[in-house]
Amino acid sequence: MSQLLPQALLTAIDEIGKLPGVGARTAERYAYYLLRANQSSNEKLARAITALGSGVSYCPKTFALVDADQEISPLYTDPSRDKTLVAVVEEPLDIIALERTGQFRGTYHVLGGAISPIDGIGPEQLHIPELLNRIAEDTVEELIIATNSSVEGESTALFLQRQIEEQGISIKMSRLARGLPVGVDLEYADQITLSHALEGRRIL
Amino acid sequence: MSQLLPQALLTAIDEIGKLPGVGARTAERYAYYLLRANQSSNEKLARAITALGSGVSYCPKTFALVDADQEISPLYTDPSRDKTLVAVVEEPLDIIALERTGQFRGTYHVLGGAISPIDGIGPEQLHIPELLNRIAEDTVEELIIATNSSVEGESTALFLQRQIEEQGISIKMSRLARGLPVGVDLEYADQITLSHALEGRRIL
Asked: Is the pLDDT reported for residue A1 higher than 50?
């Protein structure tokens, strides 16, 4: 079978196909869309992609994403935010999800992942020492361990809890509630979620 | 709410979100992936996107996509392909789908869309005159009208059939068979598909 598509399109399909969760068909669709889009909008996209590396850095305090010319995250420096209440998350984008609730007025700490022996990620690769420093410096009173409810997230939460207890740090620690998500019927809920919902039931 | 993400990341999310079918969450996921990817692979992606415009052109005969320095599509110039058998498709990528079957040894003609009054696409925007030219030039014997089985695809097929008949061109015309796709249970097939499957049943 001879080459069916122009090389420039094949290269674009190939490069786009490296994005997470993008299969061959989706990559073709995106590339074909870009092929028909105007050149200036494609150049804007290309510039945005190349500018990512130099335009973004990590806050050395919270490890949230910040502009490259910024030092500390505004989510930390904002005086209206409670530094004694810290939500510990796996990834920087988890902050966005929590901020969207509009319910949290504390600060954040990004671990930079979760403990996952299969992926070769051990606790020493996470920003745990920096968290322990913050607990002391900011006299943190409560830690909301908001790692995912996956196996890795749970292990990380447990590891963190033990680490803090072993160091003799006395602090309130909590996990996000688990139960039925809004809009899901009882009959369609999985067994584990339903067990958590039963266990965490609230007296009316 | 202050700006939660670095400007460079927001710009990338915004630009990526213009791709077809990419919502805010997906755009965030792609941008965050690119943020952590290495700079050289991002530059390759950016170059591939900007090179699309100048690297690809349309074959003036079949309207398939070709390299910018190529004149006529190799799918047309290849002497082993039967020029008297033409598959008429809506979009260039439809050719790939048909080629993947390995069953077709004719040539292609890309209409460049389908008749869709809602989207303001009339027959005058499709490559129909060029098709009529090819029918005469290449003494085409059979036309497989392989437009989609959507309302627009069906209207386009019907329009094409009438146009050719009105011009007094005597030629064999066919449509791709419609029926049950492989792997779909009878009980899950929709009514229209099942009607087509009944209508087009084959005697054993």
From this structure: no
Q: How far, in Å, CA of A128 to CA of A106, rounded? A: 18
Model confidence over B17-66: pLDDT tens digits?
Answer: 999 999 999 999 999 999 999 999 999 999 999 999 899 999 999 999 99
Phi, psi of B5 (to 5 degrees): -120, 155
Q: What is the rounded CA–CA span in Å between residue B34 and residue B184?
A: 38
Q: Which residue of B has its CA nearest to A75?
A: B4
Interchain CB distance below 8 Å, A56 and B6: yes
Mean pLDDT computed over B73-91 = 94
Give the whole-angstrom CA distance, residue A179 versus residue A198: 8
Judged by CB atoms closer than 8 Å, whether chains meet at B45 and A21 is answered as: no
CB contact under 8 A, A15 and B44: yes
Q: How far is A17 from chain B (nearest CA, A)?
A: 10
Distance CA B153, CA B164 (A): 17
The predicted complex's ipTM stands at 0.82
Q: Which residues 6+ apart lie within 8 Å of B3 measured at CB?
A: A74, B10
